[in-house]
What we know:
It is a multi-pass membrane protein. By secondary structure, this protein is an all-alpha fold. The protein has a single domain (about 15-195, about 215-390), classed as MFS general substrate transporter like domains (Growth Hormone, Chain: A). The protein is about 80% helix and about 0% strand. The chain has helices at about 5-15, 15-45, 50-80, 85-105, 110-135, 140-170, 175-195, 210-215, 220-235, 240-250, 260-280, 285-300, 310-330, 340-365, 370-390. Helix 2 (about 15-45) packs across helix 6, helix 5 runs antiparallel to helix 14 (about 340-365) and helix 6 runs antiparallel to helix 11 (about 260-280). The model is unreliable at about 1-10 (pLDDT under 50).
Amino acid sequence: MYVSRTSLSRITLTVPANVLALGAVSLITDVSSEMITAVLPFYLVLSLGLTPLAFGLVDGLYFGVTALVRLAAGHAADRWQRRKLVAGLGYGLSAVCRLGLLAAGGSAALIGAVVAADRTGKGIRTAPRDALISLSAEPGRLGQAFGVHRAMDTVGAMLGPLAAFAVLHLTGAYDTVFVVSFAIAALGVLVLVLYVRDHRDTVPGPPSIRPALALLRERRWRRLCLLACGLGLVTLSDPFVYLLMQKQGGIEAAYLPLLPLATAAVYLALAVPLGRLADRAGRTPVFVAGHLTLVLVYALLAGAGPYWPVPVLLGVFYAATDGVLMAAAGPLLPAELRTSGLALLQTGQAVARMVSSVLYGAAWSFTGHVPGLVAMGAGVLVSLALWRKATR
């Protein structure tokens, strides 16, 4: 997809500097994190010999640990009006965990513990970061603001696997990947400290977490949270998608870290256009269309292929849903509870994705990979029908 320099400049001028700074932090951090994500699933399954069920437990841990800290971190950010500080702590913890992988060696248990700590860092930083984005942009341009942020984030997601591939090609050592990843993550923390501005409300945050939980009494917010969690429950994680592609397509292990590149490239090309489309045409139609592409991904993986469109369709799915959901959720929340409310939504999604990974890993181990995909595809369609009905 071609974007002219004039169009790109126009988009950049309408996006607040704070959003661009947060995008730069996410870009750098994603280079670091995707270096690890690109090699870790295949290292665990192909080198250490984990079964699909065991990998499902590790992958579920990847999502589930974030659920333990998201709400608490979101409340702390709102309560003390220190969204930048809380986000910085999360970014810093994840950076240190890159070195933890060096100490873990070939122990799956230790690697799982480091992954848990790394995901704790992600759980701490995500809601404060998204709250800063939503508080830095005009309500009518939130889709574009989140689209720009997610596009910058995705540049990092593209560069990370390439960096991992290059390091492994030159050195053949996973330890070197971990060291380089740490250095890049540390740079991301430095950019956050130097260039991101905090947003402090005139109204102090709540003294307890109860007001955030009380948001669920509001019908529109409760409905949004429940439907988002339902869709999270039937969303297959990226590592499982790529493992299925490797299993079905017989891709050589040396090229496995490159599989996420097509996904990231499509996400990068479509994040901003789909975010702007959601602002103009409505966020629900874009969100629903994105999930229909996920159903097509399941159909291709459950059938005989072709498999090459899968990473492309996965990129469309993320571009149409990730930032669009946050843009739809932000305006439903009062400013003083913006971080806590988004953390509540993300906590529910994290728990749902954890359960999804564990259940699919078990289904693959005991019944094969197809029945689980069929069930998840049907679940997406049912959830979308409920979503459309609820938003009429």
